[in-house]
DNA sequence: GCCAACGTTGGC
DNA sequence: GCCAACGTTGGC
């Protein structure tokens, strides 16, 4: 079982939205490195942090389960979709998604500056300069460490 | 295959 | 809203 961190802008899709719907196709991935990771390494049963990006307080806000294999992202075929890609052919899909399932909110938002300041997390791509991956792997040690930050005492 | 221009991400 | 970083596009 592997661990991940997945970013979403809460204005587009938030942890509260995920709680409401339960299971959601994580669509809109348009980066080859991320696509290859979900295709080759992500498996049902893996667990992920939900991260709010591009918002007033960016940070980790919840936990979810990966509940599907990677499968074609139908929004790539939809001319009206925000992430429509005319080069993605339904017979040979270029973009993939996985389904994610709500587990719970974290006990508090764990803000990015706190993650950045933590020596135990300095290897995380999230806190490294210039990183732009919307999905990234988290080691088991990092996962456990972040969980230990939930309770500020 | 090079690389300038352009678009996107995302913190601040 | 600004802008650094970086991926993609397309002319050559």
From TrEMBL:
Pfam family for this entry, one: EVE
Gene3D superfamilies membership: ph1033 like domains (3.10.590.10)
Highest taxon listed in the record's lineage: Bacteria
Segments crossing the lipid bilayer: none
Stretches assigned to the EVE domain: 2-148
Name under which the protein is recorded: EVE domain-containing protein
């Amino acid at each position: 079982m592997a661990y991940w961190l997945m970013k979403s802008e809460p204005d587009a899709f938030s942890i509260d939205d995920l709680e409401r719907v339960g299971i959601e196709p994580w669509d809109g991935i348009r980066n080859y490195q991320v696509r290859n990771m979900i295709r080759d390494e992500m498996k049902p049963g893996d667990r992920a942090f939900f991260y709010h990006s591009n918002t007033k307080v960016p940070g980790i806000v919840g936990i979810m389960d990966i509940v599907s294999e990677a499968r074609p992202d139908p929004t790539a075929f939809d001319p009206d979709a925000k992430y429509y890609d005319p080069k993605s052919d339904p017979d040979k899909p270029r973009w993939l998604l996985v389904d994610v399932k709500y587990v719970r909110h974290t006990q508090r938002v764990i803000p990015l500056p706190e993650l950045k300041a933590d020596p135990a997390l300095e290897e995380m791509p999230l806190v490294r300069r210039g990183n732009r991956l919307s999905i990234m792997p988290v080691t088991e040690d990092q996962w456990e460490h972040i969980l230990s930050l939930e309770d500020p005492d």
